[in-house]
Design brief:
Helix content is 41%, strand content 21%. It is of the alpha/beta class and 135 residues long. The strands form 2 sheets. A 3-stranded mixed beta sheet has the order 1-2-3.
């Protein structure tokens, strides 16, 4: 059953995390360099406080352009804040539901409160594909 598949089975353990204090344009460079649609955002203590996505960056650029500002500001000013990391043992169906309901590209994965990975929409689709090939 697909509910037996857990986030840890398909999450990326090599992931980019971005600080709330990172310059917006530096974050854009990082997302492009690593070919990511989004990345977890952490505070100074390393706690997950949000996600910065391509969409967040585009909205920020439009806002800056509208106000004719040249400086980009910090990631913490533009990130998506309403993101609740899930535990490493969360089943893939629950992960899918959160990603869909919150319209996220990726979801931070934690273990004992520590960020240990992230799972993306494509990771979830790989899990579904693998499961369907088994049956």
């Amino acid at each position: 059953m697909l509910k037996s598949v857990q986030a840890k089975d398909y999450m990326s353990e090599k992931f980019l995390k971005i600080s709330t204090q990172t310059d917006l344009f530096e974050a854009i460079d990082m997302l492009l360099e690593y070919r990511l649609s989004a990345a977890p955002v952490v505070d100074m203590e390393g706690h997950v406080v949000g996600v910065i996505s391509e969409g967040d960056c585009l909205k920020a650029i439009l806002t800056l352009t509208y106000h004719e500002e040249e400086k980009g500001g910090k990631v913490g000013d533009y990130m998506t804040r309403d993101v609740s990391p899930v535990n490493i043992d969360t089943d893939i169906i629950a992960v899918s539901k959160i990603i869909i309901e919150q319209d996220l590209y990726c979801l931070p994965i934690t273990q004992n409160g520590k960020l240990v990975g992230q799972i993306s929409r494509s990771d979830v689709l790989r899990a579904v594909e693998s499961f369907s090939l088994q049956g």
